[in-house]
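Weekly structure sync, notes
Attendees: PL (lead), two postdocs, one rotation student
Agenda item 3: pending single-chain targets
PL asked that the sequence for the first pending target be pasted directly into the notes so everyone works from the same version. It is reproduced below exactly as submitted, 166 residues in total.
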Amino acid sequence: QRRNTITQVSFFYDDEDAASSFTSSVATYDAKMWDKKDMGNYIAFSSKAGNSMKVYMNKPNTKEGCDSAQNVMLRAIDKEGYEVTSFIHRGHSYHLSQSLHKMTPSSQFVFLGSCGGYKQVLTVFQLNPNVNIIATRSVGSKNINDPLLEKINTYIVNNKNINWDT
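Predicted structure, written out during the meeting:
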């Protein structure tokens, strides 16, 4: 937490896979647990109870493009006084370098959910040697990534320990 809030960003890119992943990911945020605000080029979720958590997701295929949408989102987070501690890359591995350039040493948790995301683990450790990383070794899938991320965020908000073996 920074300023008593856990702040997470998800980076989506401008292709069909990202649009499908974005829709699937947004659907995992239950309105009973999360407030949702549409900010134009991105969505912002805020936890309603438990630990204060904000989740930001840029929309894919916006008029301005994903890079601009991500930059607008990151500037808004900074302007609000939050510090991103959780970075989620959602997209093909050829987009991963763009996500890595936007990650900061404040990273505490990084999810490299693209195909072969494990190949960039050392790059993330160079930002913060104490970071926690989940990386895909083979083909990433929204059918695995979304339930996993939903469970992780639910546990964080509810201050529960995560049993990684389960």
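Discussion points:
- The helical segments are 16-27, 66-79, 96-102, 121-127, 142-157.
- The beta strands are 6-11, 34-38, 42-47, 53-58, 86-89, 109-112, 132-135.
Action: rotation student to compare against the earlier draft before next sync.
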